[in-house]
Backbone:
């Protein structure tokens, strides 16, 4: 796996329908002369970013987000972006307190252009990985589209799908669980001790790297 781009072994797992791909291409052309143009360019490095997002079920919505950088051999927990986002902090004090406690975020931020541009700058054009990533990223992309005019254009790998594919390959009669904790246990990784967004993103990254090693060994 040395020297290999992080996504080479499972390009078929990159999420996105034809509509999504066409939208990304349209966005790339639309933002070609903007400061965001580089986000739409192909990434040539070996890093990725693990993403986790938890959204409240009450209104006004509160969203906690964590992004953690990983490379082919390690998860860089010192390189993390984390925040709880809400447009109306005064209207949801109890929900905010719960998110700060559950997801280990220090303060709330308004999801305005400055905040989302900062997150986009952190993520860059590196691929995104995450557990059930399609579901995870959609509310965040909704904010990006509303505020900046585009969703995150990054290549994406759903670690849940990667886990399911490798499990079926090795144990065809075992049904893959939809729970991240069960997948961590299956591949003998540390359990989620505290269900914060940072721990979820970190666990997804560790699982991704573990599955990469498994795929390399059984290829």
Residues:
């Amino acid at each position: 796996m040395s020297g290999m781009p992080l996504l080479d072994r499972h390009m078929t797992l990159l999420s996105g329908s034809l509509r999504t791909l066409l939208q990304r291409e349209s966005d790339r052309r639309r933002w070609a002369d903007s400061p965001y143009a580089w986000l739409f360019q192909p990434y040539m490095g070996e890093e990725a970013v693990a993403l986790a997002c938890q959204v409240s079920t009450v209104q006004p919505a509160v969203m906690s987000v964590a992004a953690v950088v990983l490379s082919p051999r390690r998860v860089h927990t010192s390189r993390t972006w984390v925040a709880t986002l809400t447009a109306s902090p005064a209207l949801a004090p109890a929900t905010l307190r719960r998110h700060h406690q559950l997801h280990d975020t220090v303060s709330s931020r308004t999801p305005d252009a400055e905040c989302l541009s900062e997150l986009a700058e952190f993520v860059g054009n590196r691929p995104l990985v995450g557990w059930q990533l399609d579901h995870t990223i959609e509310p965040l992309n909704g904010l990006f589209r509303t505020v900046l005019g585009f969703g995150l254009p990054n290549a994406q790998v759903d670690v849940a799908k990667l886990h399911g594919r490798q499990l079926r390959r090795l144990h065809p009669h075992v049904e893959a669980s939809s729970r991240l904790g069960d997948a961590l246990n299956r591949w003998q990784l540390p359990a989620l001790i505290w269900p914060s967004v940072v721990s979820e993103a970190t666990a997804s990254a560790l699982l991704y790297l573990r599955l990469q090693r498994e795929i390399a060994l059984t290829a």
Summary: Residues 8-15 have pLDDT under 50 and may be disordered. The beta strands are 48-55, 63-71, 74-85, 108-109, 128-130, 156-158.
